[in-house]
Automatic annotation (TrEMBL):
The chain crosses the membrane at residues 34-55. Residues 46-125 form the HIT domain. This is HIT domain-containing protein. A motif (Histidine triad motif) lies at residues 110-114. It comes from the Bacteria. The lineage of its organism: Bacteria, Bacillati, Actinomycetota, Actinomycetes, Streptosporangiales. Keywords: Membrane, Transmembrane, Transmembrane helix.
Amino acid sequence: MRADDTDCFICAAGHCPPELIPWYDRPLIHEPEVGTVIGAVGALVPGYVIVAPIMHTRSIRDLPKGKRSELLRLLDAVRSRIERHYGPATIFEHGSCRELEGRRPACVAHSHVHVVPGKYGLAQTAPQFTAFDSLEGMLAAADSGRGLSYLMFQEPGEPVHFAADPGVSQFFRRHIAAALGEADAWDYAAVPRWDNIRETQRTLAGQSAECSH
């Protein structure tokens, strides 16, 4: 498979040889049959990555349970690695969004969890979040809603929070950008932050990223 054989950049990152993938989408960590980790375009801070399953599915909730447990193990390992370099990190997912494939201003329809160094007060973004002790507990409780769009986040030292999708594109990124004092930087398509991606690649992959894009 070549990177231009699919409209899904996450599938391309998980299946194509690195030399056929744009530099910014090349996996930092890759576990065949489990998942892949890439630097997030629009990285609001260095160390911002996304963790995605190899299986093309619309949310981690929609993964088969065996694949889900494998991905959660990878997510835990990635979060720990990010935190060793960048300090405590927040995770979030906009699951089962209803956009077409590809990287678009609204959503990407291949399941992926954001790992973002820092804490941003996301519990204040909406009143309807339900708290769970663990991500596993949230997923088990939400199994009956497979296929429905939702929001999930966990900040350092806090429970996992879950809510129905309010229909706002890049919901959490808007709030994180505002918390950083950069309210206009929320849209990754408009503000890709190549410098932060390169910093993450240098730190996690131990090598310099390519400079062309």
